[in-house]
Amino acid sequence: MALGEPGFGVYVHWPFCMAKCPYCDFNSHVRHIAPDQERIARAFVTEIETTAARTGKRTVNSIFFGGGTPSLMEPATVETILNAISKNWSVCENAEITMEANPTSVEAERFSAYRSAGVNRISLGVQALNDEDLRFLGRMHSVEQALKAVDLARNTFPRLSFDLIYARPNQTPEAWGKELERAIGFAADHLSLYQLTIEPDTPFFKLFHAGKFPMPDEDTSVALYKTTHAICDAHGMPAYEISNHAREGAECRHNLIYWRYGEYAGIGPGAHGRLVSGNVRFATEMEKMPETWLDHVEKYGHGWILDDPLTLEQQGDEYLLMGLRLKEGIDLERFESLSQRTLDPGRLTDLVGHGMIEVVDGKRVRATREGFFVLDAVVADLAS
Ligand SMILES: C[S@@+](CC[C@H](N)C(=O)[O-])C[C@H]1O[C@@H](n2cnc3c(N)ncnc32)[C@H](O)[C@@H]1O
Ligand code: SF4
Question: Would you say residue 37 has pLDDT above 70?
């Protein structure tokens, strides 16, 4: 993976789902009356125009439809948005265009139309390869349906990734290892492997704290994480980020823009962006509630509820937080130019001494595998 310029990406958020999964705290909403896609598509176009008027002409390296469940979008909606992006910016010839999709049969039926619209990478939310756990996770698909969707996706899109959630209640490292080996056999070029997290204000939060199901203890979590890495390494899919694994060259270019602290426009309800204007980097955020967002875009041309310049200190902290998630780590010169400060040599020496980080050729700092287990503490130590 080349350590080049981070690039410019466009993130498009589709905020609707068929049902709300009990673990999920993403900006996703269930509506019993189907949203008016033509009206929403017009609002996306308006917001793209407003954002592009602000950034000026840029070369877009990557576009990412995330959610929610973007595979509930009509292909025509996807096409309208992609056309607006091409019209207002310049999309590079080999741009990565990803869509997150849920592997139900209804959504899989639209795959070829998404491909015709320009999507060239699909990220499927498979989550588990056993039906009991899929039911526990509140998913609307079975293993069989998920595998059919994987098969169809592989034959439709040049690039395929899928997500699995592990560290589920009572899951042993042995059982997870077998499930992961089976998953790798389905020939995706990229896997996102997340440990189940109990997020505040979700049904799982209440159920877990009411003692309705157990979560793995710390030792089991570490063993599960080590199993994940050992198996992925053995199958040529090493981690390039704390939860993301890829064959060489198949890393998600869009997410690399975030982790390498590049520039990205966030379009749609709740989308976040980082836009650079002159020497100043702005943090942007859109109104989350889809109906309010729509109303704002129709009235004001955009749904921005946050548009704040970041201080040098904030930029340095964000670069550390994002960049140290990557195996390649951070570039010291870039850190200094973003934050106008240097990392404390005493802290660096301490963290190296404790085996948490490595300094490579005096130019880069990266977390060791041990450091990854306590990454938040490592970042906090370096940032302070
Ligand atoms: C926002 S979802 C969008 C993808 C799609 N809607 C789906 O569910 O397949 C992105 C990914 O985040 C992961 N995720 C969401 N909440 C999580 C949690 N509480 N713990 C672990 N992973 C989570 C899931 O693997 C999911 O595929
Ligand atoms: S995990 Fe995916 S499908 Fe489930 S509620 Fe969240 S965004 Fe929707």
Answer: yes
Q: Which helix (H) or strand (E) holds 132?
A: helix 131-136
User: Last residue of a domain, which of 217, 237, 257?
Assistant: 257
User: pLDDT tens, 166-195?
Assistant: 999 999 999 999 999 999 999 889 999 999
Evaluate: CB of 197 within 6 angstroms of ligand 1: yes
* Parent domain of 367: 330-384
Among 233, 257, 281, residue at a domain's last position: 257
Q: Is 102 in the pocket of ligand 2 (CB under 6 A)?
A: yes
DSSP per position, 297-349: HHHHS--EEEEEEPPHHHHHHHHHHHHTTBTT-EEHHHHHHHHSS---HHHHH
Mutate to test the pocket of ligand 2, among 14, 20, 30, 145 (most ligand atoms within 8 A of CB): 20
**238 and 384, same domain (yes or no):** no
CA of 266 from ligand 1 middle (Å) equals 19
Domain CATH number, residue 232: 3.20.20.70
**Number of domains forming the structure of the chain:** 2
Using CA atoms, how far apart are residues 236 and 351, in angstroms rounded to an integer?
A: 29
pLDDT in tens, 301-352: 999 999 999 999 999 999 999 999 999 999 999 999 999 999 999 999 999 9
Same domain for 34 and 149, yes or no, is: yes
The predicted model scores a pTM of: 0.97
214 vs 235: CA distance, rounded Å: 31
Ligand 2, atom 6: nearest CA belongs to which residue?
A: 24
Do 78 and 196 sit in the same domain of this protein? yes
Residue 291 within any structural domain of the chain: no
Q: Dump pLDDT digits (tens) for 186-225.
A: 988 999 999 999 999 999 999 999 999 999 999 999 999 9
* Three-state DSSP class for residue 283: strand
